[in-house]
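Collaborator request log, item 7. Partner lab (contact: R.S.) asked for a structural prediction of Hemerythrin hhE cation binding domain-containing protein to inform their binding assays.
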Amino acid sequence: MSKLDMTSMYTFHDALRRDLRHIAEVTARAGDDPRRVLATAAGWELFKKALHAHHTAEDEALWPVMREALAGRPDGLALLDAMEAEHAAVDPAIEAIDAALADTESGPARLGELADTLATALGGHLQHEEDDALPLIGATLTEAQWLEFGQASGKYVGPDGPRVIPWMLDGAPEAAVAAMLAPLPDPLRAAYTNEWFPAYKALDLWAARA
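Returned to partner:
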């Protein structure tokens, strides 16, 4: 059992899986052009922004620390190589969807295929990370190193925090929400409750915008 609190990782992963379901629903929707919906949906842009921040934080602030800690352990280093390769495979899937959205000759069926590719690539990576990488992290890093990664992750989210934090916690269990908000200063917790989350919930994330 990990000595580290992995709540943030699992909560973020669950939010990504939630959005993969929304993307699948949009691309399978009858009666509307899914290209028009996804091209303008606030949810698609927020999903990409959150995913980019998450993967960049891991690539730049987590895997290098793990590599140093795992020096001389080929099995652990090979797992980190796999994590980085899986990250690299997700980006082209997203880029292909954006290219299809911009291509008037690319039909809805093609978009559905690309959404399936993204779901397979990202979903497989999330499961691999949870099954193998998170236990290795928990057995390798100190609590101080894990907290440093958490702080770095916040920096990669940056000014998008008022959108990304509610996105991450949307639908999360109450215990996870409480755990994620606890480290925030009182003014930021108040902002989350009174401003950030209400503004986020007011968005129609997966509808076409004019």
